[in-house]
Amino acid sequence: MNAIRIIEVCSELGAAQLGASMGPDAIRMAAHKTGSDFFVRHETIRLPDRNDLLADKNHNVGCQHVKRLRYILENCLTVCNTVTDALEAGDFPLVLSADHSSAAGTLAGIRQAYPRERLGVIWIDAHSDMHSPYTTHSGNMHGMPLGAALGLDTQARDFLGETPNPLSPEDQRRWNHLKELGGVVPKILPEDLVLIGVRFFKPEHSILIENLGIPLHTVAAIRDKGAEHYAKLIQQQLAHCDRLYVSFDVDSLDCNVVSRGTGTPEPDGLYMEEALTLMRAFMANPKVCCLEIAEVNPVLDDKGNAMGEAAWEILANTIDASG
């Protein structure tokens, strides 16, 4: 593996609950607890954030269908350029994100670095994150990074014959700008995306995933045939891609077994052994050019720093073992 460049993105403007900004430090603390010098050995860049706006009522929400988009767009632009810089320097970007909205910037940065190459995405998450401002129920941007990467607008509502959310011209412009970051639209094609562990669905997402033909591997299926089987299958499904990006949201893990230390915990998720088997296989693939881990929230952790420790265990057994 190339030299690892750690990119810490502490912006939590896209989340529904506070505390994810401390996620990267929670992972650092877990590494320190084991005696690892991982965060000493590898270059680390901590990006600026505007989390102060969360306490400012004048900037707190904005449009109810796309909360704080102006500042999340700024954050994603910074993430995009930082990821591109790492890749163009020959480094491997390890992105430790607070909330998952930053992944829109990560994907843009990869495509900006490799505009002519086909990018495959392995998305490990309890949620599909394929909303757009036109389809969201909450307005929280951490549910929209794949929607931006796929260039989605009203499609999810269209399939149900429902009226999309109204947006102001300014928010339409900003959403289009987010989709256009990195200069490639769409960033990925449906056939270049694989979803793992998604289990919390809005009706429109089930129909959207089906209509777009996106492979979805459930926890039940993985438990039935084994994580090793699916690790091989998923890599075969993306064998046509030139590069791979792995995005791991810790809410993919079973909140009743591992921890509730994440913004949107869901039961019936992956066990650590299954996650480790999948991640070891994916990170051994030389096509993987970037890894992102998101949504560790120690404020919500019911077991001390268990979720930070789980995220570190995944890193220690995959990227650190090979880097």
Please provide a written account of the structure.
39% of the residues lie in helices and 13% in strands. By secondary structure, it is of the alpha/beta class. The protein has a single domain (4-322), classed as 3-Layer(aba) Sandwich (Arginase, Chain A), CATH 3.40.800.10. Helix 11 links the parallel strand 7 and strand 8 (288-294). The chain is globular. The chain starts with a strand and ends with a helix. This is Arginase. Belongs to the arginase family. Its cofactor is Mn(2+). GO terms for molecular function: arginase activity; manganese ion binding.
Measure the end-to-end span. 6 Å
**Rg from C-alpha positions?**
18 Å
How helical, in percent, are the residues? 25-40%
Could you spell the SSE succession in H and E letters?
A: EHHEHEHEHHHEHEHHEHEHH
User: How many distinct beta strands?
Assistant: 8
Secondary-structure arrangement, i.e. CATH architecture: 3-Layer(aba) Sandwich
Biggest sheet strand order reads: 2-1-3-8-7-4-5-6
According to CATH, what is the topology?
Answer: Arginase, Chain A
So, the CATH homologous superfamily? Ureohydrolase domain
Number of domains: 1
- The percent range for strand residues is 5-15%
Overall mean pLDDT score? Answer: 95
Top-tier CATH class: Alpha Beta
Shape: globular
- Strand count, sense and closure of the main sheet? 8 strands, parallel
Count of runs of 4 or more consecutive helical residues: 13
Task: Annotate the secondary structure layout.
Blueprint: E1 4-9, H1 23-33, H2 38-41, E2 43-46, H3 69-88, E3 92-97, H4 103-113, E4 119-124, H5 145-149, H6 155-160, H7 169-180, E5 193-196, H8 203-212, E6 216-217, H9 219-225, H10 227-237, E7 243-249, H11 272-283, E8 288-294, H12 306-317, H13 319-322
Parallel strand pairs: 1-2, 1-3, 3-8, 4-5, 4-7, 5-6, 7-8
Helix pairs in contact: 1-12, 3-4, 3-7, 10-11, 11-12
